[in-house]
User: Which sequence fits this backbone?
């Protein structure tokens, strides 16, 4: 399968930004900025904070918007005495299709290790959510030149114990930590190097069909001005966009990247 048969995915990770009123406005503006064809060609997804999800669901359902949505994290548990946690069944009930798992900010600030990330990937799949499994190296690892091995290890850890059928349900996002929120984007070649290595690793650990089907995103200072060159890479199937997804017009321009490729 070539990259052209994997449907591009642009996912906006809002992180801890926007209240529910601002969320409603942004989703309406985003939908108004994209045509039905554009939303069909490029899967467009927003990942708001938990407190905005019900509002986003109401906007999407009420106006039948072709925008998907999901959460930024989930509990590995389905229910119970886990104060402050949100479960997979709760997210599924709100119509979420995606959930980010193992974002570098959660690995760094909440000490999430590969075992917990793996449990969360499994919880997402059990409850019918598509996990967006994040991998990525810090600057120290990049400078040592061991970034491919580092990301492969995180991939192995996140997908441990899964069948090839389950892995085909997963989206992988390569987000070099040194490029997140820094304005320092990886070059298209940097993105391709690791996204390609992720696909090779999937083929080696599972099978070629699985590797061909899994979508691999790039994230880290993605903007309207750099998305086309990143999407021009064979193994990059989309973007996980932080800061630029908080601006409806900028994110819509990112989602319209095929127009820039055609030029
Ligand atoms: O972490 C990111 C998305 O998950 C990337 O964030 P920025 O696009 O703000 O660099």
Assistant:
């Amino acid at each position: 399968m070539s990259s052209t048969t994997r449907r591009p995915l642009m996912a906006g990770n809002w992180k801890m930004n926007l209240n529910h009123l601002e969320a409603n406005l942004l989703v309406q503006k985003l939908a108004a900025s994209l045509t039905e064809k554009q939303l069909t060609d490029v899967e467009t997804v927003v990942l708001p904070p938990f407190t905005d999800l019900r509002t986003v669901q109401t906007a999407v359902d009420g106006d039948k918007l072709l925008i998907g949505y999901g959460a930024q994290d989930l509990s590995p548990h389905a229910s119970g005495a886990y104060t402050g946690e949100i479960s997979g069944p709760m997210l599924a009930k709100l119509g979420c299709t995606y959930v980010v798992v193992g974002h570098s900010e959660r690995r760094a600030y909440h000490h999430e290790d590969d075992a917990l990330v793996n449990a969360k990937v499994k919880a997402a799949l059990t409850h019918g959510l598509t996990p967006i499994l994040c991998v990525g190296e810090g600057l120290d690892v990049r400078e040592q030149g061991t970034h491919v091995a580092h990301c492969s290890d995180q991939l192995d850890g996140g997908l441990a114990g899964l069948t090839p059928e389950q892995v085909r349900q997963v989206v992988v996002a390569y987000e070099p930590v040194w490029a997140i929120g820094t304005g320092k984007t990886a070059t298209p070649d940097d993105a391709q190097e690791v996204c390609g290595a992720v696909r090779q690793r999937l083929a080696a650990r599972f099978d070629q069909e699985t590797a061909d089907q899994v979508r691999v995103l790039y994230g880290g200072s993605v903007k309207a001005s750099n998305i086309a060159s990143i999407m021009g890479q064979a193994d990059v199937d989309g973007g996980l966009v932080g800061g630029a997804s908080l601006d409806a017009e900028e994110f819509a321009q990112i989602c319209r990247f095929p127009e820039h490729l055609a030029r």
Summary: Strands lie at 9-13, 43-47, 68-71, 98-101, 130-135, 171-174, 215-219, 238-241. The domain at 72-244 is CATH 3.20.20.70 (TIM Barrel).
